[in-house]
Amino acid sequence: MRYPHILALALALGGTGLVATSDTAAQTARAVRETAEASMTLTGRIDIGTDGHVTGFQLDHADKLPADLSAFVQRQVQAWQFQPVVENGTAVATETPVTLRLLSQPSPDGASDNVRVAGASFTEYDPEDTSRVTSVQMRSPVYPKNMYAMRAKGEVLLLVKVGRDGTVEDVFAEQVNLRVVGKENQMRQVRDTFARASVATARSWTFRPPTTGKLKDAESWNVRIPVRYMMGERDLARYGTWEAYIPGPRERAPWRTSQAGAEAAPDLLAAGGIYMADLDDGPRLLTPLGS
Predict the structure, then answer these.
(1) Fold designation for 134-276
(2) Could you state, in order of their start, the residue ranges of all structural domains in the chain?
(3) Residue 14 pLDDT greater than 70, yes or no
């Protein structure tokens, strides 16, 4: 699907919060913008039949989107194939939440931007689920004061190791994705600052360990927790709008020797949730994304 210059619009509407200070720096920032993408996240619910085909899809707040974009997303999701969901040896119909990431890049001719569905997550957080780690106290990190002048925005994906007493044994910033574009050293500073602030705050968090399920007797639990730094903007107000998207490098926590559990689109986990890193939550999508 093509739209005229989505990325240019996303950058103009707030994606360029970092300021270059010299000709060389400006050229560096310009090079980063040329590799940037515009991102939009959408949510909804999918009905999956016993054969794994999509039998229904409800896109949240479809009225906030252009009609052709909404139709494009509908067509993409309706064509998906999942691995059938099996319970007690029998395939069953099921419903799943979905969070989608749309990405846009300029077309080769420069006349328009190509839009694609680049990521999907099928997990949601239930604070009453006793088979999962849930929150007791999770104070939100304070927005770093030295980031105000840059108007920096982004999100940190934390991996937290929770002990049997519910305290944090260790924490690691796996990835920091930015919503601003600037020269490389500026963006590195923003990523480092957001990561340090998140890790420092997370060390004081407390959790409720699982009391049921197959992981209840584990010595510890790995959970993923997204932390957003958005300078006070409300998520719903941004729904259906394009933003600059600069994904950071993905790193592995030193204590994590395997990648068990679901790893698909971890940066699409909804803010405020706690997500088990060693469990396969949600159905398995068989259809390749990004085409």
Answers:
(1) TolA/TonB C-terminal domain (3.30.2420)
(2) 2-121, 134-276
(3) no
